Structures are given as C-alpha cells and as structure tokens.
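tool_call: predict_structure(chain=1)
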Amino acid sequence: MASAAISPARAAAFDVVLRVFEDEAYADRALRTAAAGLDARDGALARQLAYGTVQRARTLDHAIEAIGRRPVRRLDPPVRAALRLGAFQLAFLDGVPRYAAVNESVELVRRARLERAVAFTNAVLRRLADDARTLVEALPEATWEDAAVAHSYPDWVAQTWWRELGAEGARALMRAQNEAPATVVRLIRGDVEGEPDPDVPRAWHVERVDEEALAAGRIWPQSTGSQLAGLAVGAQEGESVLDLCAAPGGKATMLRGSVVAVEANEARARELTENVRRLGAENVRVVHADGRALPPELTGFDRALVDAPCSGLGVLASRPDLRWRSQPLPELQLELLAAASARVRPGGTVTYSVCTINANEAEAVVDEALGSGGLEVDPTLADEWPRFRHTVRPEFLQTLPHLHGTSGFFIARLRRIAA
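tool_result:
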C-alpha cells in the first residue's frame, strides 16, 4: 500500500487515545499538548475524534473483536489506538470519508513502524467500513451487561445505574452521558450572549465560552447542577462560611458572607487563589490545608459546603476518560463531612454535594453521618428547589443529565443540632 498523508487532527487524536489508555493520561491535558499549534478547525476535529474514541472505547473494542477475531488487549498499543480511532469514525460519525478513516488509521500503524500489523489493520478497517454502524446499532441493551457494551461503560457503572434508576432510566442516562453536554456559564458581571436558565439565576446557556470574558472574570464555565450546589448553601451576608474542598473555585466564589476556601493540593490551591482574584471575590480567603485537619482557629462557622471528591459519574459527558478511571470514595467523603460539621456552630448548616449518581457516595454517606449523631436534615432545601427534588429521597436534591439537561449532582443540607 502506498504511504498516505495523515491529517493533523487525526495525528493529534491518535496521540491522545494512545496516551489515555497506555499512559493513564488525562484526556484534556493530553489534548492540549497534542493539539498545540493546530488551527481552530483542526483543533475542534481532533477533540471530537479523541474524546469520542475514548468515550466509546468499549463498544469499539467489541466491534473490532467481532471483525478481527483477536482480543483487543493483545494488540500492540499503536494498533489498538489506530483501530479504535478508525472504528469510531466509521461507526459513529457522519460526513467522514471512509477512505480517510481507513487509510489514515492504517498509515498511523505504519508510522509507528509496525509494518507487520499494517495488513491486519487495513483488513479490519475495510470490513468495519461496511459493517461497523450496522453492528453497533444492532447491539442489545436489555440487560445491564448488554447495555454496558452497547453504550460503552464499565460493568460496575451500568450495574449501579440499573439498580438505582431501573432499566429505562439507566439506559436514558447512558445515552445522555454519551452526548455533548450543554455549554453553561455563570454570569459574574456585565452581559452574555445566550439563553438564561429558567431555574437557576445567573446560569446562561451559550454556544461557546467567550475566552475574553473568561479572562476578564465576567463569566465562569459552570454547569447548572454545579451552580445549584453553590446556591443550596444559602449563605447570606454577614455569615461566616467554610468551603472545605474549594478548588477550582466555582462554588466558593458564589458564596455570600465571609468565606474560607480550603484546598489540600498545593497546585490547586494556587489555581484557586488566581481564580478568586480573577472573579473579584474579595470576600473569599484561600487556605491551603487538608480539610480533615484544619487549623484549630477555623471553627464556629455559620455554614459549610462539602463538595466532596467522588467517582464523578454525573460529569462523564464532559470528561470522556473518567468512566475508565472512576472509583467511589465514600470513606473520604464521610471523613470530610464529619470534619465540616465539627467546625460549624450549633444551629449552623452543612451542605454536602457530589457530582455523581451513586447512592453509596450520596444518600448512604449522609445517612451514616446522620446516624452518628449531631446532625439532622434541613427540610427546607427541597422546598426551595422543587424542580430538582430527589424522586426517592424528597428531602434531598438530585440533578440527572437525562431529565434536567445538566450534570448529575446529589445535594443535601444538614443542620448541626444545638447542644
């Protein structure tokens, strides 16, 4: 086969796919490196190809194995990445010339100096050019095991959603999290081109993030679900507020009153400080510390927010690689919730939020915290935001991508019982 040129976008996407699955790189960081220097059009295509391939990897592997009759895990990494990239274009994208998807993927293998695999790659991709879309569209989804393959999720995620949302809800959520999420910003000052969210004030749906407005601190990219978590704190002027896991600062800079924003990671604490400055949040003071071991003088707060680290199952649409590295963190979440409640005065509130759809990190963590004593549910939260009332636990809030068109969040507001 004659050597073919490889477009800059496909070369960049190939590098991202290879790094994500072979080096455990983060997709967004790998893309920034791989796509540096590309023009806007090639950069956008590289992002679409890389993110889509990473997101759909399990489904693509099924198709590749069905055609190639070899386990994908046994292929050389560049061959695996090139086949995934080509299969994604053939199975899921419209308007991509078949010859470009096939020939450039084959050339990526040749460029990797794997001449022995060129014929195999070419044969598999040419068959996928004819059969990939039909094969993928015919995949069953009647059980969670089938749906995990059809929609490209780890087994544990599919099983969790099947158990908590039922078959229909789980399938709808899987589909929604494979679609591009809405672009939403929080309006800080001035105005913005877009549509205001009907339920959450200062949330605007926009075509794209205005980089100039972002640099000037007039807007902040933040989903409706994330903004809801900040608003649920209910902080008022004159109150003292603790944000225990504050970086990068979207929620901390929403809070009224005197805010102490805590971040354990030093680099993220520096990022948080810069974002606080950029957004003009003069009421926010950044503290670099572990939220579970705060300086003793940080106590007696009127309110606290624990937006805890989690599996991130509510933000998979915007983070394509997260589904393959995600893990629940209930022990850490409970420790942080206990630490926050200890720093709030009697009668004060602790708002607990996680950007996941997993009861073991949400309702179960709150229930265990309540069971240890000292906290009770604040029943007014769901009345303030009835559109987002949790369908099973109506004292809490929950946003679901397939129902609310935003990232998935669980939010509870608890009150510290007076001694």
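agent: The longest strand covers residues 344-354. Proceeding to next step.
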